[in-house]
Structures are given as C-alpha cells and as structure tokens.
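User: Okay, second chain of the day. Same drill as before: sequence in, structure tokens out.
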Amino acid sequence: MPQFSSPLTVNSFFWITSLRPTERGVTRRIQEDLLPYLDRIGLRYHTFEPQIATELLAILSDIAQQADVGLKPILHFDPRCSFLVT
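Assistant: Same drill. Structure tokens below.
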C-alpha cells in the first residue's frame, strides 16, 4: 500500500450513502478493503444512510458540532444519493 506524508490530521471517517441495494456493489467492495485498514490504523468509522434531506442536514450539523470540539473528519458521499434525486 502506498505511503503518504502529510500535515493533515484526521481522527474519523464518515461514509454517507443513500444508495439502493442494487447500486451498492462498488461501495460494498470499497468498504470490504477500507474497513479493515481503518480498524488497523485505529481510525473511527461511521456509516450513515439518510433517507431524506432533513436527515442529511441533521447528520452534517452533528458532525459540525463535534468538529467544534476536536473532531477532524473525512466525509465521503456516495456519488448518487437517492434522496437528492427527484
């Protein structure tokens, strides 16, 4: 695995998805590789599956409040969040 050096400090990883079960193939394969790695390096990992926009806003608000007191997250949004599609 490549090694990178950076002054970036991160202490949590948030995966935000709202994909339908038939759309989760790539996400599932990425998570199969990523989760064991995050466990190995001790990085907290959370998955959220908001179903409506207000749930997404509540999640982001909570993350922002935690960031005010020391959370340094990486946020990943699946490329197609079904609650955003009309």
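The radius of gyration is 14 Å.

User: Thanks, on to the next one.
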